[in-house]
Structure formats: C-alpha cells, structure tokens
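Ion ABC transporter, ATP-binding protein
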Amino acid sequence: MQESATLNPSLDAPQAADAIIRAEKIEKYYAQPSQNRIQVISATDLNIVPGEILALLGPSGSGKSTMLRMLTGLSKPTAGQVYWHGKPIAEAEINVSIVFQSFALFPWLTVLENVEAPLQARGAAPAERRERSMKMLDMVGLDGFEAAYPKELSGGMRQRVGFARALVVEPEVLFMDEPFSALDVLTAENLRSELLELWTKKTMPTKAVFLVTHNIEEAVLLADRIIVLGRNPGRIRTDFHVLLPQPRDRKSEGFTQLVDYIYKVLTRPDTEPAEAPGQPGGPRVRDQRQMRYQMLPHARPGGIAGLLELLLDKGGRDDMYRLADDLSFEIDDLLPIVDAGQLLGFLKVEEGDAAITPSGDEFANSEILRQKELFRNAAIDNVLLLRQIRRALESKSDHTVPEDFFLDMLDEQFSEEESQRQIETAVNWGRYAELFDFDAARRRFVMPDALEEEVAEGEDSK
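Structure:
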C-alpha cells in the first residue's frame, strides 16, 4: 500500500510522472442556445497510478460514470485532456477493461465463449483464447462451468464471468462501475473478499483498479485511495489515501472514523472538508462552490418526517453509519432525506452523526396541520426556489405563473433533466406545505385557493 506525506497525491509530481492515466483539467459540459452551458464535470485533475485501488464515491448526479467514461476513452472531455502513459488517449493504444453493474454477458454464448469474446475481438488464435480463458475461469472459481449459459448461473456467478472476461485481456487498468450493487449482501461480500485476495496476492493481471461505487463501506474496505465527488457540477471534494492495513476490520475505530468522515463530506456539500482521519497536513481539495440555487434533494416530506421521528426514538441523535445500517439503506437512499432535513433546518450533521434540531424536534412532535405550518415556514426561510415561486404568485393578479419561467432560470445552472426534477420536487414540497399548487394540464404554478376556484367555476359552467 502506498503512503503519502501530502494530501493530494493526484497533484504530486512523482505520481504524475508515473501515472498510467493522467487527466488534466478535464471538463464535461453542454452548450445552450442562450450561450450559457450546463456544467456536468468542472475542471478536474486526476491520476491513476500503478499498485493502487482507487475508489470514486459520490451522490447520484455527481458524474461518477461520466468520469469513468472519460478516463477510459469512451467519452471525450469537452475541455482538457486525458493521457495514457503521457500520450493523448485518443492517439494511444490503451489496455483497459470494464466490469459493469448489470453483468452485460451475451446470453447466447456459453461461459467459456463469453470470456473468450474480447480475445476473439483482438484476433487471438483459438488455442490461445481457450487456454487463457480457462485459466481465468479457474482463477475466479468457475472451473467446471465452461459449457453453462448465463441463464443457468446465479447473479454472483454471472458477475464472476464478468470479472474473468475483463481480466482475460490482462488490462493494465481494471475499471469497475458499481460491480457489486446488483448482488445480494452475502454474495457481494464474498466477491469483494475474493477480489481483494486476488489483488493482494498479485494474482490479478492488472496494475491498477478504478472502482466507482456509492457504498462507503465498500470503498473503505477495498481502496488504497478514495476520491469523493460533489455535484452540480461534479468536482473533487476530497482525495486521500486509506492508511489502514489490510485486511480491514469494519468494527475498528479507524474504519468507523473514515466511514463517518465520508458521510460528513457527502452530507455537508457547502462546507469545506477537513482532512481525513489519520491523514497528515491540511485538506486535500478546497471546495469553493458558489450557487445561486440550492440543489433540492429529491426526498418526500413523509420521508423527512419519518427520519426525524426515528431520530427522536434514538434520543435525538445517531451515527449515520448505524442509522443507514438499521434502515438497510444505501447511501443514495439515505442522503437525499438527510440533505432535505438539513436544508430545512430540521437536523444537522456533526462528525458523522445526524442530530435533530429544536425546530426538527417540534416538527416531529406536532400534529399534521402544525407540521405543515412548520414545513411551510422552513421552506420559505431556507429554500430560494420555493420562496421565489410563492412571491411570484402573490405578485400576479391572476396568481398563476408558467412553469417555463422557473425552468428557464434553473436551466442556467442545471441540466434539462435535473431542472425538471427540481421542479417536480418543488411541486411536491409546495403542495405539502400549501405554499402553492400546480396545474399539470397548463403547466402553471397557482395559488392553492386559485386552483380550487377554477375547478369550482368549471363545475358550475357544466
């Protein structure tokens, strides 16, 4: 395992010189007719070096898969450059493989034929294909299943075929895009252990591993180095080496501290990250995002209320690592609810703990009508988009505003798809809080009583 005295190995000169893949100021954005652009990934430097498992973490929408596609040459950066051993990746003969979440096997081919497929595509002779493929199947524990078809295998066995197929070409860098997320808990745990054993014993014919995941424990368990992305746009928030020795104990203090630290980075997007536990020096990356609109977390008011009630049962505070475990939630399930609670001022995250605030305590202990009132006040005070919609409705004589008015403003900051999702979440929150309603037929925001009057008038005219 590599150790570093700096907190930004991706910018460390010796590592940059030795990097297999080096990304310099790569960006991904989409131009708009208004001469604005939707920034998906902001200018980013990143290196993949030999002897390292690098894990890329981040919430949904942070650009993890987009980053992977740019680093593998599947997608060209809008700006910046990716280098393979110092040569622009478009001009180089790269040797990488990707293991996907969905197995991506050819159902009409046998296990052996699936593993042979990439060698056949490279023009390898039949005898060589068979020898190398049989060796890989034996390595991943599938000896004896050569003639089976994917439909005859369990999910875990199919993913083993995926690993064998990726490794048979002896890639210099193995990319994995959430390879364990489609598996049950025990199967995923078993495959992680086997992957780590192959890596530590240097049985795998690869020099570096790049793992995209949303599972914090998985990253801390496997990785030598972890990068956490923020979103809107995607950018590196923290980048650090994991100095815990292998094999790692999930119950150890160091392991728990790192998990809590990453939770804290993910749940406090507007706060500059501190250094990771056990790391020398200061923070790796200074996060200086400035936003006009907050990113509304896609959580329902009922989910926020449920989380607050659960925290009350736990004395008003609980470790987020244990909270997610108790709920059997993945990070992408829990974070939007936590983010929403923080945005509304109902809870705060401190040192990896979710703690209910006095206003959150009042909300959780109130009757339904009072909860709506508290939610409404919190939304007006803390959420710019909801405040703007309400004030626009109040200022109009007919108390209606077209959806496009706000979509046009959101489009300057978010992608078209995310802008629409922001509107949908705003409508959900606004209706619950009785701030406004939404006429889906006309795609217009309306005051709650204005919509009721229109409906009544329509019924009277019949």
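Residues 1-14, 281-291, 454-462 have pLDDT under 50 and may be disordered.
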